[in-house]
Specification:
single chain; about 180 residues; alpha+beta; Ubiquitin-like (UB roll); 2 domains; 6 helices; 5 strands; about 35% helix; 2Fe-2S iron-sulfur cluster binding domain-containing protein; oxidoreductase; Beta-grasp_dom_sf; metal-binding; 2Fe-2S_ferredoxin-like_sf
Length: about 180
């Protein structure tokens, strides 16, 4: 049976946070495991490993995905952004600052996924993508409590910091509107 002895590793170059990383990797490796175990980018967390909690959320070509549900091999030509690529100590992204100002975390385990998801979600709103609770499909919906909660529903927080997470997102979104973004 040739398939038993089949080669399961292949060369792969992933562009993560603007930096190309070349490795030889098992073709069954998830993007989450490649980021954490092969590239040392441990900001992306492994929560449920079933796509149910959102702790592993990263941006791929600007869109949010659960990296635990995606094979690394699928992303050879993509631009992947993890929390490490969003901001850095001393040069935080304004959304990270909003999370700190609003105390939008407790244990912090979900925070990287929450921030990546919020960045992707805000781009979806700016592009006019409706959500389940959007009242009108034409203009960008207002970022009220219901809209944010619906759009962020794939990201769980065991500490229940949701009111502060929403406040951080609203604060950042308002500052972007003030800048004309």
């Amino acid at each position: 049976m040739d398939w038993i002895d089949a080669e399961v590793e292949a060369p792969l170059t992933l562009r993560v946070n603007g930096v190309p990383h070349s490795v030889r990797i098992d073709t069954r490796t998830t993007l989450l495991d490649a980021l954490r175990e092969r590239f040392g980018l441990t900001g992306t967390k492994k929560g449920c490993d079933h796509g149910q909690c959102g702790a592993c959320t990263v941006l791929v070509n600007g869109r949010r995905i659960n990296s635990c549900l995606s094979l690394a091999m699928m992303h050879a030509d993509d631009e992947i952004t993890t929390i490490e690529g969003v901001g850095a100590p001393g040069a935080l992204h304004p959304l990270q600052t909003a999370f700190i100002d609003a105390d939008g975390f407790q244990c912090g385990y979900c925070t990287s996924g929450q921030i990546c998801s919020a960045l992707g979600m805000l781009e979806e709103v700016a592009a006019g993508w409706p959500s389940h609770v959007s009242g009108d499909l034409m203009p960008a919906p207002p970022l009220d409590l219901g809209e944010i909660c619906e759009r962020m529903s794939g990201n769980l927080c065991r500490c229940a910091a949701y009111p502060r997470i929403v406040a951080a997102i609203q604060s950042y979104a308002a500052s972007r509107e003030g800048e004309g973004a």
